[in-house]
């Protein structure tokens, strides 16, 4: 009975994927050819590009993927065909963009259309569905992520995508891109590291003092309701005052704008998930285990470090995972107050009406958040599997 229900769910998923892919291929542009970076551009459907062998081959692979999603139950085969299709989708984008670029033009821009993004999402769903059903071990999931990243890197390295507008934006901002990328990573990781140092002891204290637990958690929850940009603005005034009146603070980089208010705001936003998960994790430890440890003569501190925290660690790490993904996204907003990061490109692109400059900041941000979630999920599942 359960197998039949599972098969029906797969069939429904296949129907949805096929319908979405068919609509994208026939009704939405695959590429948009622009005379320059801000021009409206001329859309071209995938069916209009079938004179090119790569587009015809892509269409055949899309049909094969649709049939696989509908009828094939072998998850490994589904994964292989979908992976081949998504790789060829990106390759085809590069080939048709090269063919559509006017000869000798340095200002023309080729932008991926809605059909490309829908097909990318649809095939990505087939891949993720197959990976879930294969039930890979935690580190095999990380290995799969690394292999897909290498495959994408090889396509970028080949130069096939050089005529895309986003790659031209990258070529014009290469040094800045990597500098802001490092700043984005350091700001996200730094804020999470500081939050762990503050939130872990606070979570332990809240667990030991139930009367204060509700007060602390409600206060942290209240902070979470403040919009990120508003919190950045609120912090500018006190930090600016400190920088003006404390020379040492100004010397180490504390200012009303820049990295300092961004870092403080990110740390504040990161406290609640770690504190709450620390309390939940410690509360989930079997009291009989503590009683046995106390009966063996362990002190309260020894019980905490040897029993409570190791057993609660997977739950605490889940909170850290939430915080890290959240921080990677919030760093983009910090660009508005001079915090740097990939948000620089996003807001510059919005101001210049240059969508591909927006993508130059958005795509790596999404990739960082997704990769972080996959890796930390693997660590959490690995720890839980060792204890099962």
Mean pLDDT comes to 84
Q: Rg from C-alpha positions?
A: 25 Å
Shape: flat
Largest sheet: 3 strands, antiparallel
Please provide the ordered H/E string of secondary-structure elements.
HEEHHEHHHHHHHHHHHH
Arrangement of strands in the largest sheet: 2-1-3
Structural class estimated from helices and strands: mainly alpha
Number of β-strand runs: 3
Proportion of residues in β-strands: under 5%
User: Which percent range fits the helix content?
Assistant: over 70%
* Secondary structure tally, helices: 15
Q: Which consecutive residue ranges, at least 5 long each, have pLDDT under 50?
A: 1-10
Span between termini: 28 Å
Characteristics:
15 helices; 388 residues; 3 strands; three-stranded antiparallel sheet; mainly alpha
Structure description:
- By secondary structure, this protein is mainly alpha-helical.
- Helix content is about 80%, strand content about 5%.
- It has 15 helices and 3 strands.
- The protein has helices at about 1-25, 55-70, 75-100, 115-135, 140-160, 165-170, 175-210, 210-225, 230-245, 245-250, 260-285, 285-295, 300-335, 345-350, 355-385; strands spanning about 30-35, 40-45, 110.
- Strand 1 and strand 2 (about 40-45) form a beta hairpin.
- The longest helix is centred in the middle third of the chain and has 35 residues, at about 175-210.
């Amino acid at each position: 009975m359960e197998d039949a229900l599972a098969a029906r769910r797969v069939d429904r998923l296949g129907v949805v994927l096929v319908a979405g892919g068919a609509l994208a291929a026939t009704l939405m542009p695959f590429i948009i050819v622009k005379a320059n970076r801000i021009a409206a551009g001329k859309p071209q459907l995938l069916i209009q590009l079938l004179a090119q062998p790569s587009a015809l081959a892509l269409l055949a692979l899309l049909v094969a993927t649709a049939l696989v999603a509908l009828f094939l139950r072998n998850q490994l085969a589904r994964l292989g065909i979908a992976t081949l299709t998504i790789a060829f989708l990106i390759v085809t984008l590069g080939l048709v963009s090269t063919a559509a670029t006017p000869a000798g033009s340095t200002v023309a821009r080729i932008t991926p259309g809605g059909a490309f993004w829908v097909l990318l999402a649809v095939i990505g769903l087939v891949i993720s569905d197959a990976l879930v059903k294969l039930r890979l071990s935690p580190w095999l999931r990380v290995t799969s992520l690394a292999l897909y990243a290498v495959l994408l890197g090889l396509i970028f390295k080949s130069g096939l995508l050089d005529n895309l507008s986003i790659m031209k934006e990258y070529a014009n901002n290469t040094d800045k891109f990597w500098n802001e990328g490092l700043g984005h990573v350091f700001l996200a990781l730094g804020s999470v590291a500081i939050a762990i140092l503050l939130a872990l002891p606070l979570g332990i204290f809240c667990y030991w003092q139930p009367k204060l637990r509700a007060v602390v958690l409600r206060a942290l929850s209240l902070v979470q309701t403040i919009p990120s940009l508003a919190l950045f603005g609120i912090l500018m005034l006190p930090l600016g005052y400190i920088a003006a009146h404390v020379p040492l603070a100004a010397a180490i980089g504390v200012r009303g704008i820049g990295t300092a208010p961004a870092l403080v705001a990110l740390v504040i936003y990161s406290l609640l998930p770690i504190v709450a998960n620390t309390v939940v994790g410690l509360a989930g430890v079997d009291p009989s285990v503590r009683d046995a440890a106390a009966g063996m003569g362990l002190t309260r501190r020894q019980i905490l470090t040897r029993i409570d925290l190791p057993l609660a660690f997977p739950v605490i790490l889940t909170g850290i995972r939430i915080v890290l993904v959240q921080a990677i996204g919030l760093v983009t907003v910090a660009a508005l107050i001079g915090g740097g990061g990939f948000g620089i490109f996003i807001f510059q692109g919005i101001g210049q009406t240059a969508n591909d400059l927006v993508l130059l900041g958005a795509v790596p941000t999404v990739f960082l958040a997704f990769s972080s979630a996959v890796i930390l999920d693997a660590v959490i599942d690995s720890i839980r599997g060792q204890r099962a």
